[in-house]
Each structure stands twice: as C-alpha cells, then as structure tokens.
Model the fold of this input.
Amino acid sequence: MKREVTFLSSKEQQAKEKRILSGIREILEFRSYKIKKTDENDDYLDIHGDRVEEDGEKTNVIARFPKNPQIGVKTIRTLGKLQEEEDIDYAMLIAEASLTHYAKKESVKLGIEIISSSNPLFNIFEHEVVPQHLKLKGGDIRNFLNRYQIEKHQIPKILETDPAVKAIQAKPGDIIKIVRNPIMGEQGSYYRVVIKSSSRLRLTDVTPVRKAKAKPKAKPKAKPAKKTEEKPKDTPKKETPAKKMPAKKTTPAKKVSAKKTTPAKKTPAKKTTTKKGAAKPKKTTKKK
Done:
C-alpha cells in the first residue's frame, strides 16, 4: 500500500523544500564540493557533488532529504545500499524529526552523517559572531605538538556534535584551530581536540591504548593464620616481709586435781566346801 506524498501539496511545503535545498547546497559548497546534479522522486530528494583532494584524487558525496519525516532503519539502509552500489565516498541524510535509537545506531555503523533539525542548514561561519574553525593537517599537527611539547590528550576537548565541528566535517582525534574574532575584541587563536559525544571527556578516546600483556595467574596465597594475642606472663610479685605478729600470752594450764578413787567393793568370797583333811583358808584381815 503506497502512502500519499504531500511534499509539494502546498506553498508552505514548497518554501520549506527550497529552504532545505539552499541550506544543503551552502553546506556542500563550504566543504569545497561542487554541485553536479539533483535527483527527485516520490520518496527522496538527492543532491550529488564532488571535490578534488590535495593528492589529486576525486571524492564524491550524496546528500539525501527524505520526504517522509519519520526516518527509521529502512531509510538508513536504503541510503547505505545506494552508497555501496554507486561507489559514493560520503553520504549525508537530512532529517526533520528525531531518529529512533536503532536508526542512529545503523547510521553510525554505515558511516552516514545525520543533519537533524538541531543543526543549522546554512553556513554558520558567515555570521560575524562565530569564529573560524580550521582543521589541522598531518604536518601542522606535528609542528603544533612539537612547538608546545605536549600530546593530544593534553589539549582541551570539543565534542563531535558541536555545529562548527560538524560543519568542517571533523572527526574524533582531529585538532581544530579556532581563530578569535577581532570584532568581538578577541585576538589570537586557540586549539581543541575532537572527541566522541559519548566519551564523557575520557582521555582514552584521543590517545592510543596499548594492550597490556596478560600476566600469568598467580597462585592464591594461603591466608595467614590469625595471630593470637599472647597474654603477658605474670611477673613475680615482690615478696613483702611478713609483719611480725606479737606473741600471744599463754595462760598457765590449770592443774587438774586428781580424782579420789573409791576403793572397789570387795565381793565376799564364796564359801568353799573343803574336803576332809584339806587345809582351811586363811582369814584375811582388813587393813586399817
């Protein structure tokens, strides 16, 4: 089922198309591209251009404006397929509305630049307040670093999403020279290094990271036994001389009077019958 195309249905749409086309042409011309042709169909409006590099090679570019404001993964992949079939070096996509998360991810994967409504569709450097931004080349970068005896990660940062950075087509790792505007009472110039917008100002994005050699796994050390606190030995106490206790007075023992012994009662001797001719027992006399 085909959707209805409303791109040229009113004067407002025609004025909008004209403004976008002029903005795309201005951006390409600022990047030293020469406009070659313009193609238009029911779905897209394409602008083709090319330029000659310093080494004499020619690079070409395509800038596409989809007539459907809702841009998804399919639109990105269609442009990427066209770029591959026609051997196009650089591709741009102008988006009126914000892209979905997956569309942004696909554009990064295919290397397609997205110019959204948040980016101005005109040459921002024509404004008197905006200072000129110049991208340094290989020889200029070496001279700059040697002159100040510094490295890239020591240069102040600027995000790749900055409108001026996108206008000069700078990439993460590039060094930009910003010429101060004399109209604003400024003189001289300063430098910035471009980093990724998702890097959160990390230095690893502009300096090469060397892979560290894997160290052999060390055997786990045995946990040292817990030291038991030794109780301090009892120190021998100094013997204090014993206090001499006063000798108790001994009381003389009481003489025990000898008990009078009562003489034992003598039992009367039994009368014994004596035989005839036997001697009669002697009579005992009591002592007085």
